[in-house]
């Protein structure tokens, strides 16, 4: 009988031993061990895509570099993600990605100090400030730039000048911020089964297209909002979460609409619900919710809503004429 292979394997990542399961990718093993390998197209649960090339690592005994998001772990594997040559390769990949990306939020020395939508005090030609991206300060691309300390930009291509899609009250698409990670394509296809997005055209004409070139409102989108959750940049945003939209409290709760019982976080500001997000820690729904859970919270503040339970007050029995 063939010897059964152990289901756990031990690898090292930058010299740190990591125990993981056979069948995991290097990126999954690193994530579970709390080690960060830069990545932009990978998302837990989605088919690996290997489109961004951000997760390049060196594996001892192999030539060149491999993408950590597609490389399965092997017992004894030694992975290097933090050497200077690997970091330099990751920076090169990032620079190419940024060649047609709005970059003022990345290279302005004041970008961490300016409040969102505040006036620019550095450039007198800029009246409403350069950082208008709705994802500013929550952006995964910014996080990778900061992590890799990328402070140069050698490549500049033409900037995209695409129209925003504001055809519906729930989501806003601004594909000028898209980095073609295809997370939206995969989550809508693999998780929601709606296949609204596709990756179309090539090279500098590449574009995420809705349906066959329609608006989101005209497509078969069900407005579950999951594409906005996975989008690393400001390309797909929930409209109720676009800055300036302050939140002073987030409360875990359960959606009140149907028996699925999706767990949500309700974000409030000054006592009013301003947005809702699925509570990913809950096994009932994970990162998913439907349009009602994600966007249908305004009934909380409807003036006709009962704010206290109705109590039935016992009444004296009616006296019926002719009944003894
Ligand atoms: S998507 Fe991120 S990196 Fe790009 S402009 Fe917006 S905040 Fe900046
Ligand atoms: S909101 Fe949901 S259904 Fe609509 S495009 Fe995004 S993931 Fe697909
Ligand atoms: S829209 Fe967002 S999720 Fe979709 S490919 Fe572009 S950056 Fe990625
Ligand atoms: S989010 Fe949608 S599916 Fe989930 S409990 Fe609410 S209504 Fe039901
Ligand atoms: S995360 Fe591995 S190639 Fe994008």
- What is the CATH architecture descriptor of the largest domain? 2-Layer Sandwich
Question: How many helix segments?
Answer: 7
Main β sheet profile: 5 strands, mixed
Number of spatially distinct domains: 4
Sketch the topology as an H/E string, one letter per element: EEHEEEHHHEHEEHEEEEH
Low-confidence parts lasting 5 or more residues at pLDDT below 50? none
> Which structural class should the secondary elements be placed in?
alpha+beta
Q: Key features?
A:
binds iron/sulfur cluster; 16% helix; binds FE2/S2 (inorganic) cluster; single chain; three-stranded antiparallel β-sheet; Ubiquitin-like (UB roll); alpha+beta; globular; five-stranded mixed β-sheet; Alpha-Beta Plaits; 324 residues; 4 domains
Verbal overview:
The protein is of the alpha+beta class and 324 residues long. It has four domains: 10-82, Ubiquitin-like (UB roll); 100-159, no CATH class; 160-243, Alpha-Beta Plaits; 246-301, Single Sheet (N-terminal domain of TfIIb). It has a five-stranded mixed sheet, with helices on both faces. Strands 10-11-12 form a three-stranded antiparallel sheet. Helices cover 16% and strands 17% of the residues. Bound molecules: iron/sulfur cluster (4 copies) and FE2/S2 (inorganic) cluster (FES). One iron/sulfur cluster (SF4) binds next to helix 5 and helix 6.
Summarize the SSE layout with pairings:
Layout: E1 8-13, E2 16-21, H1 26-32, E3 56-59, E4 66-67, E5 78-80, H2 84-97, H3 104-107, H4 140-147, E6 171-173, H5 183-191, E7 197-200, E8 207-210, H6 226-230, E9 236-238, E10 249-254, E11 263-269, E12 272-278, H7 291-295
Parallel strand pairs: 1-5
Antiparallel strand pairs: 1-2, 3-4, 3-5, 6-9, 7-8, 10-11, 11-12
Bound molecules: iron/sulfur cluster (SF4) (4 copies) and FE2/S2 (inorganic) cluster (FES).
């Amino acid at each position: 009988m063939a010897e059964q292979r152990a289901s756990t394997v031990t690898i090292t990542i930058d010299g740190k031993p990591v125990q993981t399961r056979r069948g995991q990718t290097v990126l999954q093993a690193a994530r579970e061990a709390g080690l960060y390998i830069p990545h932009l197209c990978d998302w837990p649960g989605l088919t690996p895509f290997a489109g961004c090339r951000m997760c390049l690592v060196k594996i001892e005994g192999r030539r060149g570099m491999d993408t950590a998001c597609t490389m399965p772990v092997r017992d004894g594997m030694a992975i290097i993600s933090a050497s200077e040559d690997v970091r330099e390769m990751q920076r090169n990949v990032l620079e190419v990605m940024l060649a047609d990306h709005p970059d003022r939020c990345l290279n302005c020395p004041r970008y961490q100090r300016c409040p969102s939508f505040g006036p620019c005090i550095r450039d007198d030609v800029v009246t409403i400030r350069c950082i208008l991206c709705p994802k500013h300060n929550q952006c995964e691309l910014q996080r990778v730039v900061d992590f890799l300390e990328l402070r140069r930009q050698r490549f500049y291509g033409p900037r995209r000048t695409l129209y925003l899609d504001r055809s519906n009250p729930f989501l806003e698409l601004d594909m000028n911020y898209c980095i073609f990670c295809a997370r939206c394509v995969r989550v809508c296809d693999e998780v929601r089964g709606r296949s609204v997005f596709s990756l179309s055209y090539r090279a500098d004409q590449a574009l995420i297209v809705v349906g066959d070139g329609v608006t989101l409102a005209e497509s078969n989108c069900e407005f579950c909002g999951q594409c906005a959750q996975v989008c690393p940049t400001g390309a797909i945003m929930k409209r109720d979460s676009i800055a300036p939209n302050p939140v002073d409290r987030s409360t875990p709760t359960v959606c009140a609409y149907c028996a699925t019982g999706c767990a949500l976080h309700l974000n409030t500001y000054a006592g009013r619900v301003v947005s809702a997000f699925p509570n990913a820690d809950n096994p009932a729904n994970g990162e998913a919710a439907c349009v009602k859970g994600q966007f249908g919270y305004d009934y909380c503040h409807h003036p006709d809503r009962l704010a206290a339970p109705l109590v039935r007050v016992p009444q004296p029995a009616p006296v019926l004429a002719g009944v003894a």
